[in-house]
Write a structure and sequence with these properties.
Blueprint (H helix, E strand, L loop, with lengths): L2 H16 L3 H6 L4 H8 L2 H6 L6 H12 L1 H11 L7 H7 L11 H12 L7 E4 L5 E2 L3 E8 L4 E7 L3 H22 L3 H4 L1 H15 L2 H14 L6 E2 L12 E5 L4 E2 L3 H6 L4 H19 L2 E2 L7 E4 L7 E4 L5 E2 L3 H15 L3 H10 L9 H12 L12 H14 L9 H17 L5 H17 L1 H34 L9 H36 L6 H19 L2
Parallel strand pairs: 5-10
Antiparallel strand pairs: 1-3, 2-3, 3-4, 4-6, 7-9, 8-11, 9-10
Amino acid sequence: MKPRVLLRLLEIQRVLVRHGLDDFVRATHLYRPLRFLFFLSLWTWFQRRRGASRAERLRLALEELGPIFVKFGQALSTRRDLLPVDIADELAKLQDRVPPFPGSEARASLERSYRQPLGTLFTHFEAMPLAAASIAQVHVATRADGREVVVKVLRPGMREQISRDLEVMKALAMLAERWWPEARRLKPVDVVREYHKTILDELDLMREAANASQLKRNFAGSTLLYVPEVHWDLCRGEVMVMERIHGVPIGDLATLRARGTDFRRLAENGVEIFFTQVFRHNFFHADMHPGNIFVLLDDPRQPRYAAVDFGIVGTLSLRDQRYLAENFLAVFDRDYRRVAELHIESGWVPAGTRVDEMESAVRTICEPIFDRPLSEISFGTVLLRLFAALQRFDGQIQPQLILLQKTLLNVEGLGRQLYPELDIWQTAAPVLRSWMRDRVRPRTVLRELRRGLPDMLEVMKAVPALAKNFIERAQDGRLAVPIDASELVALRAHIDAGNRRRDRLLLGCVLLLGAILWEGMLAIPAWPAWLLGTASLAAFAAAWRQR
């Protein structure tokens, strides 16, 4: 383990102990060899913060540990059904109330990026940030033409800090893969690798601006979701400038209630937006915590979502997209056998899995949640039970689906806060059925064929030359099939081992037969028969051990 990784592990434990979160240290098995260093340290005991509540101490510890831990707290804050109320309330502050860095540092960073004074670009720039998050913070500014914008700028030193924490996560994942029996199924190294790509994408604000532009194009003319306009001329790798929107934060339920918002429509629209992004557009906002979602109330009876912070987006392969849609629809239709078959066809569980056994397990998980409002069920609980069932069938976590699962849990958390009686099945099923019908319509099939026609023509043009070359090499006796030599060596070793086992068994049989004949003929002396019998048993034992 690299020295800086070990130092970071020690620092994490120091922060947890200093904030009086001893239970977290005791529960972390990988830290157990180290924790006594801190319990024996007088500095640690005297520096503990016991005055604040446990929820506040947890939030402060996550803030001190940095952006990756803050994001973990943000994700937890959306699951009020899984957390005590005090912790959920405190972690909600991580969504947009992370302690900011000074406005003077933001100004200096912006002037380095633009290579000119801010006064030449903005007639007004507010030094006090509008919101501060784990990786960046946002300032309000006004352009020379009078348009009000928000300027997002990265926190100083983010790349170095995140790079170090990613090394820590990778080291822990490798330890888990080596020593944890569940690692083969849960694939911690692959999960960390997926997260590594995701978090590094968040550090490139030009990429985030491109994501916002794509999402705005996808929902052009939609009454469901509004995406602010990107000001491309002012975007850089560490700076993004967008139109400022004036909406109500989705977590401000009191204001939404006072404005007469239709909460049922708002919750249903959230579910429809999610499934539309995943299946119709195959491009979804994957960081939908309340700090990133606003509500536009031009018409409270027709509330419209507005999204910000597009650093994390997700896409799926067409294969995963189709399997997911069919799985959802099969669950909606209570066709549990089809769910089991799809898991086997997709490779999410081994090919030899018995369909009837998996069908029974899925039925046990899903049947209790039907015909019940969202207030009485939890996707988080369902997912945990499903993972436990898949463990029985040697199912493996699919790292490419982690973002989707995280977003689905965020959507559920929002829906639960807005309208607990939401029927998520009834809202999502029409979107999925419409998408599945569109996939097989003649117009869609023709469009896909037309899109693939150039590649098909290129392949067809190459076929005659390849066929001619194949025939000529066959006629000249130069046609060869490449074979992996290492596999031949392994096969030869396996055959040789089999031959040796066969020879030992044959020798044992001969010796045993000789001993039986010797004894049967009452030969004197009798010790050669015992010697032959012992030798035959030894030969059998050696052959059995190497079978």
